[in-house]
Structures are given as structure tokens and as C-alpha cells.
Amino acid sequence: MIFVTGMFRSGTTFVARLLNQSDEISFASDPFFAVLKDFRNTLSNESAHKVDPHAPLEDYYFDESKYNFFRTIQNTRLGDVKIPNLKYLKEFTEASSFPYSELLSKQIHKISADNYGDFLKQGEQILREVYGNKRLSGFKEVWANEFAPHIINVFPNTSKVIHIIRDPRAILVSNFYSEGRYPILFLARQWRKLVTLAYHYTKSNQNNMIIKYEDLILNPKETIQGICNFVGINFDEKLLSTEEITDGGNKKWTQNSTFQENASTGFNQSSVNRWKDKIKNSDRMAIEFLCYPEMKLLGYSDFLDESFKDISSTNLIDEKDKLAKWILPYSELNIPIEFEKEKNRLELLLKSVTEKEKELNFLIPSFYEELKTV
């Protein structure tokens, strides 16, 4: 099972559609997020940490209850949790997968499973049936890095996980120029969580790899050859062609680009640095402040001011009327308090800290040690 994951607007769909052109992989986009989210919800119902079932996956920072729930998710296998309502899960999966994997969505009703691991196994068989029954199978999901160990556990002999990472400043611009923004704190903390876990999993398990969006676009042949070597397929020049890519309904696929200029097809190199001309300085200062250590570790540069002497809590205040309506209930934060948490987080990199401080501020203690070196 090839699992491609990362933050939205990072090129995950592009990678998925390219891999689907291989004669060796049957690939689907965004078919099983409902399964992973329902698994989260079921664990929450059985734990002391209750979450709104409609809420996005949490970032787990600064709150001991959230962090403990994160550890519960990490330490619980999909196959060990019973599905409380199979009818609901099938309907949820059908609806959420239909826009991206139409052919697969129409067959979800066939699944009969009593745990989440078996649901995915049966879903993978349907994926093969509707998308070519090739030697390997795969799917991509955004926001879902934290489930990489779960996928490897369900498909232990074939799993490879590809984590796609993109400069958070480019992600912010892409989101802010689209309809329905997300809050800056939400974007930054989700990005941090996703890259932290990608880095940790890649260090600790050879079945994980990181691909930077910028490398994919600027050096496509070398990057895709690396992906092919990693997942165990032959490189084919058609993996570099974007003219015949199809979507989940076997129709011609059009790339999802916020900026619809003529060059937005294929490996559009202008997409790498476009953010520099579009981002407001106040927003740039905010995202760099919130993501600075992780960005440095991953090789991103060109910061406005690495001292952050002019940053204040006002940089983190969103224009509420521009936010997506669905996220409003999850964005009611005390910004001055959250700003102090973030300032303290940066200062911890200059101190001796406890294991608990490492966990609550950086999620993975060994990752904290890596950040201290940059």
C-alpha cells in the first residue's frame, strides 16, 4: 500500500495522479479520510478527551489532555477498534470520497467489516477492482500524517508512506487567495504537526520518505525517479507527462491551482516562489514566527527578521469575515494567550527543559533535540 499524505495545497493530489499513470499502481485520491476520522471519534468516545466529531484533527500542542489523546491514537491499531456503526461509516465514506474517487465511492456499500483495519483492507480490494487491479495499490489523504503507522500496520508487507512538505508561506498564500480562509494559527500549527511527524516517522521507519514540493516542481525527473525507487516500481517517462492524467472518475484531470494562469499546468516552476509577490508582510511575519524552527530544519530560508523583535499578538489576528464558515467554531481562541505560548515555545529551544515541556511544545522529544541544532 502506497500512502501519500501531507498538508492541503502541497501537491499531494498531483503526486497521486502522477503515480496513477504507472502500469504498476492502482491509485485513489482521498477515499478513506472518513475511516480515519471515525476511528479518531470512536477513540475519543472511549477516552477522557472528548472531541466534536465534526472538528478537524487536532494539532495537540500545549494541552496535556490533547497530547495524551495523541499518544492514544498513536498507540492504538485500526484493527483493534470495533466500528460502532457500520452503516453510518459506509455512508460517511461514500459521501466524502465521491468528489475525488467516484468509481471507488460507488462500491463502498459492499464493505462488511467489524473493525477499522478490516474496513481499509476491503476498501483496498475495491480500489484495485475499480482502478486497474495492478501489482500495487495506493491512496492519498491530506491532513493525515499521524496515521502513517496505522497504514503500515494494516498493510505490513507492502506499505510505503510518502510525506509531501511545502513551504508554509506558499500554503498560506494559496489558502488566503482562495474562497474561505483558515486561521493563521490553525494553518501554522497543523503544518508544524504534519512536518514534525513526517520527520519523526522518516527517521524511525525506513518505509517513510519526505518529498518537498519544491523539489518535485524544480527537479521532477530526479524526484520522481526517487519515488519510484522507494516504492519499488520502474520509472517511466510518462510519469513526467501531465497531459493524460485522469481523475477518480476516469475523466481528464485539471490541476487544482489557486492562480489560474496559462502556466498552471504541468510542473509549473512559477508556483514555487509566487508566494513572495502575494504575501502580506504581517502575514509573512506571523507564519515565519510560528514555524521558524521547523522551517530552518527542513531547509527553508529567506526570513524577514529572524529575531522577531517586531512581532506581536496582532499579527495572529484573523479577518473573521474572510474565514471559512465551517472553521469558525474551532477558531475562537484568546490570541494574546496563544501568542505567549508561542513565544515561550521558541524560548524553550534556548533552555534545558523537561520531557513534558518537550512533549507539549514539540510533540516528539527527539524532534525537539533536532530543532536545537539548527
Automatic annotation (TrEMBL):
Transmembrane segments: none annotated. It holds the Pfam family Sulfotransfer_3. InterPro entries: Gal/GlcNAc/GalNAc_ST, P-loop_NTPase. This is Sulfotransferase. It comes from Leptospira bouyouniensis. The lineage of its organism: Bacteria, Pseudomonadati, Spirochaetota, Spirochaetia, Leptospirales.
